[in-house]
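Before anything else, study the sequence and fold tokens given here and see whether the fold suits the sequence. Record follows:
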Amino acid sequence: MKKIVNLKKSLALFAILFVNIAFSQAKKPTIMIVPSDVWCNTNGYMMEYNNQGTKVKIPNYKKVFQENMDIKTVISKINTLMAERGFPLKDMESAIKTLEAESAENAMTAKSGIAESPIDKLKKVAKADIIIQLTWATKQVGPKNSVNFILQGIDSYTDKQIAAAQGTGAPSFSAETSVLLEEAVLAHVDNFNAQLQKHFDDMFENGREIIVRIKKFNGWSGNLEKQYDGQDLSTIIEDWISQNTVKGRFNTSDVTENSMLFEQVRIPLYDSKNRATDARGFLKGLQDYLRNAPYSIPNKLTMKGLGQAVIILGEK
């Protein structure tokens, strides 16, 4: 009888352990699927914007979704494949509408900050962990059609490629691009998703990667060599970064009396309220730390996209 009770207890503990493990592994990255720059350029959906005096060509995503039914159908199909595998999705068309509303509001309040490209702004609004860039082209051989495709998983915080898949679908009599693409992608999607999940698991354990810059306003009398209790301000900032990054992982790439650059800064994936952490959210802690006694340094925090933020010390 005692053995049976012990067995039941062991099974119960095993069941609890299994559920906990399954739950911890269930967290998946949020993704957003976008047409690639190559596809947009090939199909005539590009525009120019002024980046601090330099004209830069970028995809005109709004025009894509207003005029091209293929892209809406294709992205919907890929979204379905990803959703069936448990990946949370961000809708690009909805993110564009939110961005337009935010841009109008910022224009009215005349907010300023570091120069951001339209793509940086879109990433910030969507807040997807991973951007999946989709490129495809159809070709016809006799009565049959086939499609070539490329999927690229891009970490939206670092712009690094973290997953890739490409292939050609079997020739088919179907004339629908979405059907051809679905058939072609289906053979590769599970391996592609495994690459995405591996990257996300690494972020979950070691933190997501951002870039941090420290600068100063010209009018501020202090600098990063100013001492507080026998320590340079640069050392105080570096110590804060060390104490607040995941496993103390970061790289101090450059330090001068007027600026600092930290790269490969690993920050927690989520904050205490289980919200995705971005560069600005992480650096709010440092901003407050410097503003308060004993330092009492006024400063301004600005960001570029999700993965880059700047603290500017002093006042204009």
About this structure: The two ends are 79 Å apart (CA to CA). The CA atoms of residues 62 and 258 lie 40 Å apart. DSSP finds ten helices and 13 strands in the chain. Residues 7-26, 107-112 have pLDDT under 50 and may be disordered.
